[in-house]
Amino acid sequence: MGEAAAMSTPPQKLRHINNWLFDLDNTLYPATCNLQQQMSVQAQRLFCELLGTSTQQARELQRTYMREYGTPLHGLIKHYGVTPEIYFNYIHDVDYLVVKSNPALKLALEGLQGRKFVFTNGTADHADRVLKRLGCAAQFDDIFDIVAADYAPKPDVAVYRRVAEAVGGKLSSIALVEDVPDNLRPAAALGMTTVWIRNASEFSHGKVGEHIHIIADDLVSWLKEVISAQISSLRAGSTHDIDKR
C-alpha cells in the first residue's frame, strides 16, 4: 500500500478492530511539546558522562543505537553493561509539565470502542506520568512497557508476539498506532493493522511502505472519524436486525 492509499483508507475498514495498541511518546502527546527531545538530550548527556564522548559523538552513537537496536538503552547494555535503572533514572529526569491536559483526547479514547493499551519502549512509570498529565490514565486497560519485555524494545518482533498474547484474540483484531514507521513493520507482518501518526520530529522518520496501512496527521481528529464509523456500523447493524424480524 502506497502513502496515498494509506491516507485514503476509510475508517470503516477498522470495524474488525477491538484491541488498540497506542505508542506513548510523540503519539499520545504532540511532538511539538518536546518531551521526547528532552529525553534525547538526557541520553546524550549520559553517553558523555559514562563514556567520555563529546556531544557530537554522543549524538552519533545515540542515532546508531536507535537504528540498530530500536533504543539507545539496548546498545548501552550490550556494549557497556549499563543497567536499565541507571539509564531510565537519567533520561526520565525531565520536565513533564510540558505535556498538557488533553480533554479532547480523553473524550475520543472514551468513545473508541474496544480495549485500549499503551505499548511503549519506555517504562510504566514514565507512561503513567505522561497519561496523568494528559488526563487519560483511566482510559487505558493496561501498559505494556520495556521492563515487562525484559528490556527488548520495539521493533523486536518477539515483543509484539508477547504483547499480542497478553491482549488475546486474533492478531487481525489488533491495531497499532505509532509515530515511528519502522516500529509498524513487525505489527503488519504479524497481521495487525498499522496506523502511522505522522509528525515532523526527527524520531518519527523512517521508510514508508506496504507495512503502513493508515496515515494520520492528527490523532484526535482521526479517532473522531473512527468513532463516527463505529457508530454508523452499530446503527446499520441495529437496522438490519429490525428488518429481519
Describe the structure in brief.
The protein is 48% helix and 10% strand. By secondary structure, it is α/β, with parallel strands linked by helices.
What would you call the structural class?
alpha/beta
Assign a percent range to the helix content. 40-55%
CATH fold field value of the largest domain: Rossmann fold
Order of helices and strands: HEHHHHHEHEHEHEEH
Strand content: 5-15%
Q: What is the straight-line distance between the termini?
A: 41 Å
Instruction: Report the strand count.
Output: 6
CATH class category of the largest domain:
Alpha Beta
Net shape? globular
Low-confidence stretches: 239-245
Detailed description of the structure:
By secondary structure, the protein is an alpha/beta fold. It folds into two domains: about 5-30 and about 100-245, 3-Layer(aba) Sandwich (Rossmann fold), CATH 3.40.50; about 35-90, DNA polymerase, domain 1 (Orthogonal Bundle). It has ten helices and six strands. A six-stranded parallel β-sheet has the order 3-2-1-4-5-6. Helix 9 links the parallel strand 4 (about 175-180) and strand 5. The protein is globular. Mean pLDDT is about 90; it is low at about 240-245.
